[in-house]
Design a protein that fits this description.
Layout: H1 16-23, E1 30-33, H2 40-48, E2 54-59, H3 62-66, H4 70-73, E3 78-82, H5 88-94, E4 101-107, H6 112-116, H7 142-148, H8 151-162, H9 167-180, H10 186-196, H11 209-219, H12 222-236, E5 237-247, H13 250-264, E6 284-291, H14 295-300, E7 308-314
Parallel strand pairs: 1-2, 1-4, 2-3, 4-5
Antiparallel strand pairs: 5-7, 6-7
This protein binds S-adenosylmethionine (SAM).
């Protein structure tokens, strides 16, 4: 079976203009794109940088790095790293970049090629092995996890990470199905969910949408990764440096919003006092309101639909 979806899938960068302007680029600045994907945002950053500018781009998916556009691969201002953004602080330390970064971009979630290539196992639309790892060389696949997790854990993940109303029924159906044979293909899982989740007359999305998203977020520990990267941003950015985060899920957006708000406030016991000790002062300030895509962007790229950009500046 051909696990590749017909036609080469490319990734259309989301909220490109607002993210680039949010980074407030300086031609000789040092930037980090922690989610290189297919290099849409990185390419736009490089276009604005002069010869002294520098860009570190990271992706945990080895395929994203291997398939980086040739024009970017050979750009001497760009360094590509295959790794996780939870290790940002280490990458910055190794390069003597702590407190020297002018802007950090996180464009969360998965890229179109990851979703569209059936062999990666992210999609319920095209049948493939149930994998869902952004880095297929590390951690357990979705099939391995679904084969071993107890019903309560399955239900909790579907409920918390997918906000799936029918989490209990779906978890029960998964446990029952795997008693006859391991669930190994995306189409099998989609079918099990379809049969277990009652359909509402106005439902537009495939009934497996939320479950697939929840399993993907769990398998890749996406919320844990985000938390570590946000914490590292304070160490990386120089005063005036910008943090731009594009999220696609309410849980991610909530985590970003909360992080920026917490870092923008002094601890309760110092609030309102004229003299706040150095280590207790706010470290970030919010820049503008959360940015959503325009109707035109959504019409041109359905994947932009749930995106939201938040911007903060290091104080
Ligand atoms: C939405 S895509 C980014 C697209 C990119 N901005 C572009 O325009 O081409 C997200 C990318 O981030 C990567 N990614 C997700 N979580 C990551 C993590 N914790 N560490 C490093 N890369 C990650 C994914 O593998 C994927 O390639």
């Amino acid at each position: 079976m051909n696990e590749k979806t017909e036609g080469a899938s490319h990734h259309v960068p989301v909220l490109l203009g607002p993210a680039i302007s949010g980074l407030n680029l300086k031609t000789d600045g040092c930037y980090v794109d922690a989610t290189f994907g297919r290099g849409g945002h990185s390419g736009a950053i490089l276009q604005e940088l002069g010869t002294d500018g520098r860009l570190l781009a990271i992706d945990r998916d080895p395929q994203a790095i291997a398939e980086a556009p040739e024009s970017l691969k050979h750009d001497p201002r760009l360094e590509l790293i295959n790794g996780k953004f939870s290790e940002l602080k280490q990458y910055a330390t190794e390069r003597n970049l702590l407190g020297k970064v002018d802007g950090l971009l996180l464009d969360l979630g998965v890229s179109s090629p990851q979703l569209d290539e059936a062999g990666r196992g992210f999609s319920f639309r095209s049948d493939g092995p149930l994998d869902m790892r952004m880095d297929p060389s590390s951690g357990q696949s979705a099939a391995e996890w679904l084969g071993a997790a107890d019903e309560k854990t399955l239900r909790d993940v579907l409920r918390k990470l997918g906000e799936e109303r029918f989490a209990g029924r779906i978890a029960r159906a998964i446990v029952s199905a795997r008693q006859s044979a391991p669930i190994q293909r995306t189409a099998e899982l989609a079918q099990i969910i379809h049969a277990a989740a009652p359909k509402t007359p106005r439902q537009k999305r495939h009934p497996a949408t939320k479950s697939f998203q929840a399993i993907r977020i769990f398998i890749n520990d996406e919320l844990g990764e985000l938390k570590k990267a946000l914490a590292a941003s304070v160490d990386l950015l120089r005063p005036g440096g910008r943090l731009c985060v594009i999220s696609f899920h309410s849980l991610e957006d909530r985590a970003v919003k909360r992080f920026i708000r917490e870092r923008s406030l002094e601890p309760v016991q110092y609030r309102g006092l004229p003299d706040i000790p150095e280590g207790m002062r706010p470290t970030m300030k919010t820049i503008g309101k959360a940015v959503s895509p325009s109707d035109a962007e959504i019409a041109a790229n359905a994947r932009a639909r749930s995106s939201r950009l938040r911007i903060a500046e290091r104080l």
